[in-house]
Fold this protein.
Amino acid sequence: EGPWDEAEKKSRPASAADIIGTWEMVYQKNGDLIPDNDPYVFPYHRFEFFSDGYVKTIGLNDPFDEEAMMVWAAAPKSSKCTFPNPGVLIIAGVSGDQTLIMISVMTEDMAQSLRPDAPKLKQGDLLLSYLTSDQQLYLQRYLRKIH
């Protein structure tokens, strides 16, 4: 059994209730559609999903420090997220742009990692697969809840 088979057995489609809270990105794999120097794929990300359907996110080139936390705290809730179906998350930005994400929540710890360079997913982690409008995977992220 391969790691993707294991992931399918040890996860389920995420819902709005699963994602409320603050998350830190623990892994990211860029599929080369986005330049590596683009802030969208900076190596450090935080996400906060709110019960009112808003999401706040920040990406940094360096680990979070006190100054970054102040910027984060002051950042507006500007993007909305919706679940047209379980496991399908759409984030709509202020400019009207939409991001399509297949999202799963891990129900058990993984015994193997999905990619050689990736950490093992743990129970409660979110697996986000970003898709283009023609359903091509271009970015994958793992999020771990911090509170």
